Amino acid sequence: MSRITLLLVDDHALFREGLARVLDAQPDLEVIAKTDSARAALEALESLNPCVILLDVDLGPERALDFVRLARQNGYAGGVLVVTAGVGDQEAIQLVQAGVAGIFHKHNSPESLCDVIRQVAGGEVYLEQRYLKPLFQTVDPAHASAQPRLTEREITLLRLIFQGMANKEIAETLSLSESAVKATLRVLFDKLGVRTRSQLVRVAIEQYRDQL
Question: Which of 143, 140, 135, 142 is nearest to 94 (CA)?
Fold first, then answer.
C-alpha cells in the first residue's frame, strides 16, 4: 500500500503529538516530520517532500498564510491542508487564493480528518460550505474576462466539487463511471488553463459565479 507522507505544523505540543499518534495508526498515513513553527517547517522542506502538509493558522508570531506563500515560492507542489480551531473569512479567502487545498476545523472527528487527508493527497479540494459565500463575494463580475463556455455537465461537476465530493462520490451521484468524471475534469483543466483542483475552484469562482 502506498503511504501518504505528512508534515505537521502546529505550535501546540499536546495537539501535535496526539495527532501524530492518531495519523501514524493509519496503515496508509505516515508522519515524517513535526514542527512548531513556519520557520522550522520551511527548513524541513529543504530535505523532505511530504505529500500533504497539515498546517495550523495561528503559529504564535507567524501566520499560515506567510508559510504557504513561501513554501510555494520555494517549489513545494504538494497539498496544504489547514487544520484550525477557527479562521476568519478574509484570511480563509487569502489562504485559498494562496493555494491551500482545504480548511478543516479541529472540532471534526479524527476519522473525518484522515478521509480529508486522503482526498487532498489525491488532488481533491476540501472546502467547508461556510467559506463559499465569502469567496463568491470577493468576485466582481464587471471585471471578469472572456471565458470558455461550460457544458451543463461541467457546471454540475463544479457544483459537486464545491460540496466537497471526491471523484467516486461524484460518479455515484451522476451515475457515471469514475473514469468519465476524471475525463470531464481533464477537459475543465484544459479549458480553464489550470493544473490543480484548488486552482480550478478559484478560477470557477472568479469567472463562473453566476452559473454556479
Answer: 135
- Backbone dihedral angles phi then psi of residue 4, each to the nearest 5 degrees: -95, 115
Exposure class string for 22-54: b at 16+ Cβ within 10 A, else e: ebeebeebebebbbbbbebbbebbeeeebbbbb
| Amino acid at residue number 23 | L
pLDDT tens per residue, range 91-147: 887 888 788 888 888 888 999 999 999 988 988 888 766 665 555 555 554 544 556
Domains of the chain: 4-129 (3.40.50.2300), 139-211 (1.10.10.10)
Relative to beta strand 29-35, strand 62-63 is: unpaired
Say what the pTM is.
Answer: 0.67
Q: What is the DSSP string of 96-162?
A: HHHT-SEEEETTS-HHHHHHHHHHHHTT--B--GGGHHHHHHT--GGGPPP-PPPPHHHHHHHHHHH
